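User: These chains co-purify. Model them together.
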Amino acid sequence: MTTLNIDHTSRWFGNVVAVNDITMTIGPGVTGLLGPNGAGKSTLINMMGGFLAPSTGTVTLDGKTIWRNEQIYREIGIVPEREAMYDFLTGKEFVVANAELHGLGKKAAQRALATVEMEYAEDRKISTYSKGMRQRVKMASALVHDPSVLLLDEPFNGMDPRQRMHLMDLLRRMGDDGRTVLFSSHILEEVEQLAAHIEVIVAGRHAASGDFRRIRRLMTDRPHRYLVRSSDDRALAAALIADPSTAGIEVDLAEGALRVQAVDFARFTELLPKVAQEHHIRLLTVSPSDESLESVFSYLVAA
Amino acid sequence: MFDVYNPTVARLTYRALLGRRRALILFTLPALLLLIAGAVRGFSGADDQIAADVLGGFALATMVPLIGVIAGTGAIGPEIDDGSVVYLLAKPIKRPTIILTKLTVAIAVTMAFSAIPTFAAGLILNGNGQQIAVAYTVAALVASIAYAALFLLLGTVSRHAVVIGLVYALVWETLFGSLIEGAKTLSVQQWSLALAEDVAGGELVSSAVGLPAAAILLAAVTVGATWYASQKLRTLTLAGEE
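Assistant: Joint model of the two components:
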């Protein structure tokens, strides 16, 4: 049983608060750390990996402080986001060096290389590897000592679909083995496919936590905003507001458009063309104005 | 307690140091020294004063600090810059072990590329007359230790280690350290010259600093820089991409 505990942890850089009073517990199994770019995911992972001191609060592994405790790396394996490795080494030399630094030998390195299926290219220089191959060798270097905790920062970045699936299988297996696997991602679908449990971080804050389905529902049930331009904005507004699927309409004079907030997504999308036709109004623009992930996330923060 | 040497860290450091393009300078500078020595000998024959001038003016004042900058900062700076140092740090290895190992490598490389050519150049210049080749070789060996420690620290604390190191090596050691009286007491070059003076025993090699003071300063700088580098590595923050 290995549990990471983040307790009222904040981290700021000068005036910028990157992580704001976050408390979470990450236990065995696969956990996805989800949030838009710049939300503080890397900062949080760096604190869990012992590469950054919390400004306040504590980050512990089974009660042991992680910061400035190099013995903790007997239990933690880290797959950093940054590309840089010892590019002048071959994949095998790199993984063997990592094993030796743990006091292990070639056998452990070979096993790790087999786990990520990189034996076929192990004698090639890392500088000749593709992004996905680098990611797998990084993974092997993190697995040499059979850690109970695995931290991965944006591990799927730049991987092709096949490599992605392969890594997902691997992480799933690790989770099923009872390891504590935490990976960060800003892509909803990745997290959805892999993690049953997710933690959502937005703007340095802990926005949501728990079962994926619950969070997904929160995301689809949120009010949808549309920007609508038509031949008669005011008549259209009057007709739309009469229906319960519309929660609010603003006439944006500067934009020359309506800002519509719909609460029942399915019903609204049927309603809009019907109403327009009935009132002989021509629709010129209909565009969702908040489909970006950031707005989905900020809705979650408020929820 | 901790190990003072980790063979894996050493192997990675050697390969990183000697494999990079800037390692070419490691070979170029000694080659230049030998070329100068050969030319001087050819033109003016064996002359003790000229031998001392070449070894003191070029080898010790310019070449040794430059090699020190390349080896010292190169032993750790690039790894910190590109983030690959994370693979060393995320291991159950004491940070002082990493620093001491890298220091050993930096010292060995600096010595190999500065002291050996210095000795060879001394032999070419005047066949070690008046012990000049040996004296400057001793100075180069001692200076290698202090420079390696100093520039390893610089590589640990600054992203601009090479530039700062070059300015220090060229402006401070070469210019001020040779010309200005006050600066001389705070110069690795002068400290190591104190040892050379002791070895040669003549008027050809002289230092602005007495031997006891020089020895103490050399030891203090080496130990201090190494200790501080270990401390900095313990709390090295690897900022995220965000």
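Chain B touches chain A at residues 6-9, 11-12, 15-16, 19, 82-84, 86-95, 234-242 (CB under 8 Å).
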